[in-house]
Amino acid sequence: MFLFYLNLLCFIYLGNTSDAQNLERLAEKHITHIINCTPDLPFYWENKHQYLRIDILDLPSQNIRQYFDQAIEFIGLFC
Which of the pair, 76 or 62, is modelled with greater confidence? Predict the structure, then answer.
């Protein structure tokens, strides 16, 4: 189940590990690009999707701003 859904310039979904592993759900939502914000979660469907890894932990002390430009560029490539 997707946790959050935004419809901005393109479809952006925010999900968890279970979502990333669910090929049927990814196909149903026409998801082709995935930003993996973990240091070690595998790219489950590397042969079917484009991935960007942002090596960051889910901690309040993490500075996520430093990754915004990289993520925006990746999103901009397919919108």
Answer: 62
User: Which residues does 48 contact at the CB level (< 8 Å), separation at least 6?
Assistant: 23
Amino acid identity of residue 3, one-letter, is L
pLDDT for 25 equals: 86
CB 34 within 8 A of CB 51: yes
Please tell me the distance from the alpha carbon of residue 68 to that of residue 74, in angstroms, as a whole number: 10
**12, 6 in Cβ contact below 8 A?**
yes
Rg (CA), the chain: 12
Alpha carbon distance 76, 8 (integer Å)? 12
Residues 6+ apart with CB under 8 A from 73: none
Two tokens, residue 31: 């998801």
pLDDT tens, position by position, 34-64 = 999 999 999 999 899 999 999 999 899 999 9
